[in-house]
Amino acid sequence: AVLKKGADFNPQNVDLLFDLAFCQEQKALFDDAFETYQRIIRIDSFVGEAWFNLGHIYFMRNDFEKAIEAYDSALVVNEKDTISLIQKAHSHFQLDHWKEALEDYLVYSETVTEKWQVWLFIGECYEKLENFARSLYYYKLSYTEFPENYEALVGISICLLEMELYDESLEYINKALKMSEELADAWVYLA
């Protein structure tokens, strides 16, 4: 209530509006936070954080096209905004835009030192594009960097299965099952 009064009294104060939007998000008042971020952008369209937060709300609403637009705007403000880049990639992935997601994940992978997780995303994009040899390469990179990587083991097994390398596929799916017997996808691929 105090921040809202402050924003009414000083409607151009971007810092105050960010505090207000943060509180609105914490109270799950996402429509209000959405309006507040739009207000910030109307005051100054070069506030990358407002574009990112707007993209995040679109993403939570499953409006991935609008999320991509917002993340693109954040990247125009700061081309080195890796968080917007990865979220943009995730948005493309949710829309089954495998090539676009792949491009963004590849760029993002150049910005981080620990790569096993982004290599999983890249491997999955190649898998969706049915480029199983390339997918296998990235899943194996991910597994090498992080050997307790259930998702990489399953991904490797799927690629080997698609490449009709059944014995090798069984080897990796059995490793995945030793890691976690409860997850159904390993059992499906074993069958």
Topology:
Layout: H1 2-9, H2 14-26, H3 30-43, H4 48-60, H5 64-77, H6 82-94, H7 98-109, H8 116-128, H9 132-145, H10 150-162, H11 166-179, H12 184-190
Helix pairs in contact: 1-2, 2-3, 3-4, 4-5, 4-6, 5-6, 6-7, 7-8, 8-9, 8-10, 9-10, 10-11, 11-12
Describe the 3D structure.
By secondary structure, the protein is mostly helical. Helix content is 77%, strand content 0%. The protein contains twelve helices and no strands. The radius of gyration is 21 Å and the shape is elongated. The relative contact order is 0.06. The model has no long low-confidence stretch (mean pLDDT 90).
Number of strands: 0
- Rounded mean pLDDT is 90
* Distance, first to last CA: 58 Å
Unreliable residue stretches = none
Strand content: under 5%
**Residue share in helices?**
over 70%
Which H/E pattern describes the elements? HHHHHHHHHHHH
Rg, nearest Å: 21 Å
The global form is elongated
Count every helix, treating DSSP H or I runs of 4 or more residues as helices.
12
Structural class: mainly alpha
The largest β sheet comes out as: none
